[in-house]
């Protein structure tokens, strides 16, 4: 039985969780509601002592949790899922407050995380047995120890539980560090988890960006699973080298979407737009460059512009499709792409060169029509609601253009001729390529980037190995 909805949890006080207990702090900070620009609740800033205490507790808990039989661990994780689902409405309120997402969009995350639980709860641990005349080789996958999960602000629940679930399932203990911009839902999820797990199995330390290095350099953390920007990912990898930690790096993207000339323009136009502007463009695998065949370029752009004009941007309580940019820093960064495009004289197919200022960090979805290949909007990831389109005619050339980037997270190809679309898709240098769909990561498939978009991957059958050592037992037959 999982605890029913009776816990004394409050939704307006927040703390870190260390060794099964609430942990405050002398220093505090506050997130900001991006829909209003107003400050939210106080949260403690964890320090080195908090991290050290969490690691000691996690190591102790690992001794027991890693020995709990796999099926029993699943039962406990299932109880955690049920307990979390009891509070899904409160979690949605909180997610709306900290991210500004429209409620129906926030629910895709708060409710959608159930799919991550369910998929992992149906997995078995991989095992391989090879035998020859003299020996048997048994390969098993054993837990690493204490995992540090460092998370970004765009999907605080999915991205933290997307690490914690496979880490716990495989017998690790986990310390989650939420983004300072979105600490609230993560701290509550981990607080709820304390009613299910023994102290130290799952903990949360939030605070400032100073905390990340405390985790990445800690001698007793075995692995860092990091999701965030390419720039920070490089720092994580450098820091982890000191203790030869395992790392999984889920980093930024600059996804290309290639549109073949045979598509149904009216059907595909809104999908291209959604691929680019889902979550206001704040998705690692959002479409960030759109290559449309010359024969349909004008018609497609016209349809996309018409669809963009129907999109409502607004606060969580409204019936908007898109919310604000999540934080001021990102809001200002996205505006540099508007300014650059305006200063260089690029054509705004839809959207205004000057972002309207007001309460909240709102930016209207904007399309830049055929900027040059070396423009910032083509070469860099804005991570906001602005996307470029370019025409193409030659298949080889557009594949080269799509691959001409340091990133390699996702990509899309659209075409009635599915064989041709798949043929192109197979040549795109990206971890997840979608044919006739915009980017929709799912727990069933391993998710990871090529090139500077990451190292390793998570989710899917392959993903649970990211939380394990391979352990091979070579048993020679008795002589
Ligand atoms: P970020 O790199 O600024 O921060 C990510 C996390 O790292 C935060 O928790 C932050 O506090 C922490 N951090 C900061 N400095 C650190 C350091 N020196 N060492 C360790 N941790 C440190 O990224 P962000 O702005 O939160 O997120 C946006 C970026 O994340 C985008 O580039 C986006 O594409 C990428 N992203 C990737 C994926 C993916 O799965 N590949 C998913 C979501 C977002």
TrEMBL record:
Molecular function terms from GO: aldehyde dehydrogenase (NAD+) activity
Catalytic function, reaction form: an aldehyde + NAD(+) + H2O = a carboxylate + NADH + 2 H(+)
The keyword Cell membrane is assigned to this record: no
Domain of life: Eukaryota
Residue ranges annotated for the Aldehyde dehydrogenase domain, each copy included: 27-470
Residues at the catalytic site: 250
Enzyme class: oxidoreductase
InterPro entries hit by this protein: Ald_DH/histidinol_DH, Ald_DH_C, Ald_DH_CS_CYS, Ald_DH_CS_GLU, Ald_DH_N, Aldehyde_DH_dom, LUC3-like
PROSITE patterns given in the database record: ALDEHYDE_DEHYDR_CYS (PS00070), ALDEHYDE_DEHYDR_GLU (PS00687)
Catalytic activity, EC: 1.2.1.3
UniProt keywords, alphabetically: Oxidoreductase
Family according to the record: Belongs to the aldehyde dehydrogenase family.
UniProt-recorded name of the protein: aldehyde dehydrogenase (NAD(+))
Organism expressing this protein natively: Meristemomyces frigidus
